[in-house]
């Protein structure tokens, strides 16, 4: 447990708690792997956690930002990410978002279709700006993760098919106010098997050869994000395996002279620094099961309900009581009127009582940003400790 119990006792629940020291050491670990390479740019994917203090801490360390909406672009600017280090992605960019990005002079648009490319060219001409664009190519690489968070296989809505790559690049090169800078890829999220990233590298190498044959110059390669974290053992693996991740690209990706390599990491930067702090409202005994009913539910953390994710759950108060009895199996659930509002089934916990303080771990990524007001609940606050 990374936090001081007395500090936690004083906080309202449900709320998010973020471990600032862990965020700092995670950022330092990434910098240690990339500092000797000036052509390597790591953009933080703001969708994972958009807390202003977290954003400022990441910006201060010299990272860029990966944004998927006008709101995220504004948040990035407010947190002092340089506009030139902002990448703007997403299959459905609205006109106002494109205009905002153009007026701010962001580093690059990751473009997902020929239709979008035409609109960006039109708006750039209209505003007298130049849009630097990368084309998101669907690499058709199947990654081993949950079906809802794979993005790189042919049937996903994301990106441009290989077979259309050359014609789309030619279209980009012919359009006014468009500067074609490179290619963008993203194969999925929560990936722990480095062979998935290796497959991506091999596919990019093939595509680069094809482009070379056509005499097309590519300045940037953006390999997206996706590095996973340990949800089973956050204390054993507080920092993601950045060494293996960056080494995979160093070994397998054949960059051309002067090419810049961009990454867009979200989860691996912020997941382990965050926990959802919650109190036990009731321990409900039934003929078949015992339920621990928390004051946090799928409104605060939707990952278990949406993806079947299992986050480690800790009873902070029971650890203080020094419970010596054997663990009890509980279904740990939230208060929301949905049967999918369950954090874990048959989960072993020390004997648990009303009022106990619990931590749901590894919730710093896609926790607070995916919270909702369903059931007219207030959005959770966050505390940086
Ligand atoms: N780049 C692109 C184009 C993306 O779509 C994503 C995430 C990222 C980068 C950052 O990926 P990361 O490094 O965080 O894996 N809500 C889900 C995850 C959705 C990921 C969406 N795209 C979850 O809670 O597991």
Helix/strand layout:
Blueprint: H1 5-9, E1 15-18, H2 20-34, E2 40-45, H3 52-60, E3 64-67, H4 70-78, E4 86-88, H5 95-104, E5 108-111, H6 114-127, E6 131-136, H7 165-174, E7 178-184, H8 194-213, E8 220-222, H9 242-252, E9 260-265, H10 267-270, E10 274-285, E11 290-294, H11 303-307, E12 313-315, H12 316-321, E13 328-333, E14 342-349, E15 357-360, E16 381-384
Parallel strand pairs: 1-16, 2-3, 2-9, 3-4, 4-5, 5-6, 6-7, 7-8, 8-9, 11-13
Antiparallel strand pairs: 1-10, 10-11, 10-15, 12-15, 13-14
Residues 45, 48, 66, 89, 149, 151, 186, 189-190, 224-227, 264-268, 303, 307, 366 line the site of ligand LLP.
Structural key phrases:
Lyase, Ornithine Decarboxylase, Chain A, domain 1, eight-stranded mixed sheet, single chain, 31% helix, 12 helices, TIM Barrel, alpha/beta
Q: What's the gist of this structure?
A:
This protein is α/β, with parallel strands linked by helices and 385 residues long. Helix content is 31%, strand content 22%. The protein has two domains: 20-269, Alanine racemase (TIM Barrel, Alpha-Beta Barrel); 274-384, Beta Barrel (Lyase, Ornithine Decarboxylase, Chain A, domain 1), CATH 2.40.37.10.
């Amino acid at each position: 447990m990374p936090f001081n119990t007395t500090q936690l006792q004083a906080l309202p629940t449900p709320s998010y708690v973020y471990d600032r020291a862990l965020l700092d050491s995670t950022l330092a670990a990434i910098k240690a792997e990339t500092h000797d390479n000036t052509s390597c740019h790591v953009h933080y994917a703001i969708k994972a956690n958009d807390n202003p203090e977290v954003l400022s801490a990441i910006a201060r360390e010299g990272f860029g930002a990966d944004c998927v909406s006008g709101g995220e672009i504004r948040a990035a600017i407010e947190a002092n990410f340089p506009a030139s280090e902002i990448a703007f992605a997403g299959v459905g960019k609205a006109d106002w978002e494109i205009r905002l990005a153009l007026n701010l002079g962001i580093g690059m648009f990751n473009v997902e279709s020929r239709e979008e490319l035409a609109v960006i060219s039109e708006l750039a001409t209209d505003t007298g700006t130049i849009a630097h664009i990368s084309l998101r190519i669907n690499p058709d690489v199947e990654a081993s993760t949950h079906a809802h968070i794979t993005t790189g296989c042919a049937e996903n809505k994301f990106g441009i098919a290989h077979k259309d790559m050359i014609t789309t690049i030619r279209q980009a090169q012919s359009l006014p106010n468009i500067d074609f800078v490179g290619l963008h890829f993203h194969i999925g999220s929560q990936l722990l098997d480095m062979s998935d990233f290796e497959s991506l590298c091999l596919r990019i190498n093939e595509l680069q050869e094809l482009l070379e044959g056509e005499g097309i110059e590519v300045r940037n390669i953006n390999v997206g994000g996706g590095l996973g974290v340990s949800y089973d053992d956050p204390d054993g693996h507080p920092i993601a395996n950045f060494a293996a991740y960056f080494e995979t690209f160093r070994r397998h990706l054949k960059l051309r002279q002067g090419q810049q390599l961009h990454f867009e990491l979200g989860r691996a930067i912020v997941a382990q620094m965050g926990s959802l702090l919650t109190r036990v409202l009731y321990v409900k005994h039934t003929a078949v099961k015992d339920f621990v009913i928390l004051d946090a539910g799928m409104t605060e953390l939707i990952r278990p309900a949406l993806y079947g994710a299992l986050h480690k759950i800790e009873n902070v108060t029971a650890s203080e009581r020094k419970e010596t009895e054997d663990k009890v199996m509980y279904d740990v659930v939230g208060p929301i009127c949905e049967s999918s509002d369950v954090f874990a089934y048959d989960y072993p916990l020390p004997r648990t009582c009303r009022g106990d303080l619990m931590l749901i771990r590894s919730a710093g990524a896609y926790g607070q940003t995916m919270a909702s007001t369903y059931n007219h609940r207030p959005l959770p606050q966050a505390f940086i400790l």
